[in-house]
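Just curious: can you write a single protein's sequence together with how it folds?
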Amino acid sequence: MLDIKWIRENPQELIVALEKRGQSPDAARSTVDDLIARDEARRAHVQELQVRQERRNAASKEIGKAMASGDAATAEALKAEVASIKEFIQNGEKTERDLGKALSDALAVVPNAPLPDVPVGKDEHDNVMVRDWGGDLIAARAAGMGNKPKEHFELGEALGMMDFERAAKLSGSRFTVLKGKLARLERALGQFMLDLHTQEHGYEEVIPPLIVRDEALFGTGQLPKFEEDLFFTPHTTGRLGLIPTSEVPLTNLVREEILDQKTLPRRYTALTPCFRSEAGSAGRDTRGMLRQHQFYKVELVSITDADASIAEHERMTASAETVLKLLKLPFRTMMLCTGDMGFGSRKTYDIEVWLPGQNAYREISSCSVCGDFQARRMDARYRPEGEKQTRFVHTLNGSGVAVGRALIAVMENYQNADGSITVPDVLRPYLGGLELIDRN
C-alpha cells in the first residue's frame, strides 16, 4: 500500500507511475484525484471533530460558571449544546472510521510504483535480458538427446513415473501423480535447495502454516485484488486461504511488530506446497506439469531496512541463480518491464530456465523488491538506531526455486536418446548415489 502523505505531496509522480504500468493518462489522473479527495474528506471530518471536541470542553466549563452565577437559563442552553455536540461526536467517530476504510480500500488496489531503472513496456515482449548463463551447455547436450528432444511429460509417461490420467480422476485437471524415482528426484531437488540456502546463503529455514487468514493474504497483496486466484476453506465462522506461495506466511512473520534494526536483515526460506486456481490461464500450458493447481516451491523472503533493500534484491537473485548453476541448467535473467511485473513489486527479475523439449526459456524464479508497500499493509516497522521514530521495513521475496519446474528442467536437459534421465552430480548424494533414472 502506498503512503497517502507521499501521494498528496507527489501526485504527478504517482500519475506517471500508473501510466508506466499501463493506465491511460485520464485513468491515472482520476485514480490519484480520487485518492486525494477521499483523504481530504477524511481529514476535514477529523478536523471538524477536533473543533467540536474543543467546543464541548469549553462549554462544559461554561456550564459550571453559569450555575455558580445562578444563570440557570444559560446553563440549560449550554447543556443542550453539549448534548448535541456529544451526539455529533458519537456519530462522527463512526463516520471517521467509514471514511478511513473507504480510503484504505481505495489504496489497497493501487499497484506499487516502479523504480526508475525498470524498463517501461506493455508485456513480456518488453522485458530486458540482463545476463545469461550456460548457453554452451545447450549445444553440447543436444547431440545426446536424439533428433528431437522430448518434453517432460513424454519422458515421464514413458518411464511410467508421471501419471496425469489418475491425477485427473482424483482431483481434476492441472494435477500430477509422481511415482518412484521421479518422486524421489523432486524430493531431492527441494532438499538440495533448502540445504544450499540455509548453509551457504544465510537463510533461516521455517515450516509455516499452509492455510492463513485473510489479513495475511491482504498483507502481501493477494487480497483483495487477486481473490479469484486463491483457494479457500471454511473455518469456524469465516474462512482460511491455502497459501499460493510461502511468501505469504514468511513475510507476515513480522506483521504488527517493531523490529530492532540490529536484527535486520532477516532472511527466511521454506519448502512448501503452493495452491493456485490459475484463474485466467485457460488454454495455457495444459499439457504436463508446468502450470499446476498444486506444486512445491522453495521460497526466499528478506526483511530489511530502507537502505539495504536494493542490494538485498541483487543478493537474493544471485542465490536463486546459484541453484541453476549448480544443477548446470542454462538460464537467462530478465528485468521485467512495468507492464509485466507484479502488483506489489517495485522491481522484479525473472529467471528463465532453458527447456529443450519446448525449445524455449520458461520462468522458474521471480525475485521482487517491494519497498515498504507490503509493510504498510502489515504494519511492520523497525526502529533505527538512535532514533525514537519508527519506519516501515522493506520486504523482498523470490523463488529459490520452483521445485516442480526444476524437475521439468532437469528431465529435459539431462534426457538421453533412449528416454532415460541422467541425475545431475549435485543431486546424487540426495538419491543414495543414483546416477540414472530409467525403467529398471
